[in-house]
Amino acid sequence: MTITISLPPKPSETPEFTADGQKVREAGTTLRTSSSIFDDHGSFAGGKAKESGLLDGRSAAAYAQALSPVGKHADACSLALRAAANAVLGHGDELVDLRKRHQQLEGDREHLARQVDALIARANPLPTDEAELQILKSDCERCSSQVEAYESDLVSWTEDLEASEEKVAAALRDAMTEQQVDQKYGGVADPADAARDSMPSGNDPKSVKAWWDGLTEEQRAAMTAAYPEIVGNTDGIPAAARSDANTISLDRDLAELGAMPEDQRTDDERTRYDNARAAEEARRRISKSIDPITGENYVPQIYAYDPMAFDGDGAVAMAVGDLDTADNVSVNVPGLTTDMEAAGDNAQNAINLQQAAAFEGGTSTATMFWIGYDAPSGADSVGVAAEGMATAGGERLADTLDGLNAMRSDDFHLTAIGHSYGSTTVSHAMTDHHPGADDVVLLGSPGAGDDADSADDLGIGSGHVFVGTNSEDLVGRLGQTGWVSPAAIGAGVLTGPLGGAAAQMAGAGLGHNPAEDDFGAVRFQAESTSRGSIPNIDDHVKYYDHDTESLANMAHIVNGQYDEVVRAGQVHDPWYRDPVDPETDRTPTSPNTDGR
Amino acid sequence: MTLHVEPGKVQSTAAAWDTENLHLTAAAKQLHGVGTGGFTPTVASLVGQFVEAWEAIATESARVSESQADGLRRTAIDILRTDATTDINASLVLSSIKELR
Lengths: 596, 101
What we know:
The complex is a heterodimer of chains A (596) and B (101).
Chain A: H1 21-46, H2 57-122, H3 130-173, H4 178-185, H5 191-197, H6 205-214, H7 217-226, H8 228-231, H9 239-258, H10 267-288, E1 300-306, E2 315-320, E3 328-333, H11 343-359, E4 365-371, H12 382-385, H13 388-407, E5 413-419, H14 421-433, E6 439-443, E7 465-468, H15 496-508, E8 522-524, H16 549-559
Parallel strand pairs in A: 3-4, 3-5, 5-6, 6-7, 7-8
Antiparallel strand pairs in A: 1-2, 2-4
Helix pairs in contact in A: 1-2, 1-9, 2-3, 2-4, 5-7, 9-10, 10-11, 11-16, 13-14
Chain B: H1 7-32, H2 41-84, H3 88-93
Helix pairs in contact in B: 1-2
């Protein structure tokens, strides 16, 4: 019997592939930002620029005549550059996918080449045993078919790369000269305008989500480029789209105002630029930090960006992780003295919490810092504002939480975390508006607001209201505890910006101390190994530090690992003496929260 | 006599054109900074040509904006100068029209 054995061919070399889809996306993002500048230029030329102030008939007519082609050309430039930007962004996405497939091909080729070499060695000399020959034949046939599949995948990969290159090249060639631009896009209606007109009135995030889902891909891209301030800050629009839009707004502010000589900036421009730079610092910190699960840098999501909000205090929210897809999402609300300039430090808190959640076993987490309300800062006085800012902030926070729920069609775990005055804000969101948060964490709370007599009043069950209060955190002692008047702790003994503000908070009366037993929340351990020996402000700002009890416990709460949360004894208020905090006498621990 | 110019409006619109100039100059600078390093060699050179062309387009649009601002101011000043020969008000507002940035 004759057995014919065909040795498998060596697999072709995988071609070198050095393209970087992420860098290509960055290029596309810059083109889109520039298209947005042209878009505004066209709007200006077609709008405000018409008000020349020239009343002389001939001069005014000459000016108007010169204006028209400028506006038309700017609009055409905007559309052309946007189309090129979209093509480049799409090409970037395809290159990311092609990169993954290329890595797979390289691995397959290496594996197959080793297999082929092994088969050649087995066939030289050929085995004499017939059974062995049959096995060799079968192995050669299997390997040959694997090489064939590899070759086919390689051809597909090459074709897909060429198609992607050709598509982006065609888009770029189409808009290489001003003549081409005017010819193709002159007088063409911007799809963003029709999309904008169809946007639902009111703020219902579910209606917004339905509207967004109903737009075409082209309309969404157009809205993002032409109306970034709307897309970037409207609840119900998916986080990725909001981030794209806010990236345009932020990059524009940095580019436009950065190019302006400092002494020529108006007060508003100076404020806008300072806030943009603070947001940039937050973005930089997130993108330079490492996800402990993947080992890769985080990609920040800019969920909100409004640098002139609240009379220039500014509003910004940024996430570490993907808000659109993460199983566990937390919204972190800062408190006293927070304005947009604090974005960098708040980004660090969000990074720490994301890393800790990952280290504690969370496989899919997004943590967002939310400077989305007018917190007491600078000239704002807590004593004067009392709960007003927390009440107003609570409404805005509830809208944000409702927006997150509306933009997601799946079931995910949402935790609202408030620190300091932010805890009063979170409480107000829950008691006044009942948004769909699963868990609440109140950190270093000066009081849970005057609408919360107990944890049950937050509307999610007392077992889901968690409280972290360092026993020597001065602010954590300011809430109403039994019959003690927090104001008695009083002004005059506190110094520094936070100390002075804490003194004001003491007199503001921000509701019950949520760490007290009567309140009925779950208090978790939140002491620090560097805890002071008397009530102080330093212990008010350690809750998000790595290797602290509070961060570890927050990570467990964010992950929904309730059994892992280490409970602490609650503050109680005997009739015969001052409130007693059992945590004061416990030796603090330092759990590892980042594996380092 | 009625002035043939609203000085406040001329000044603010011309200043807005100046701002457009700055914004478009920023766009040109941004385009100049677009890197081609992430692209494949097949596409990279075309991207280089594209951003160079668009940097020029943005620069030219910025120049046109600056020219609109200057032209508006110049026209207004010419009209006011003519008016000033017969109207004291025109000579008083002449100095309010100037380039700020």
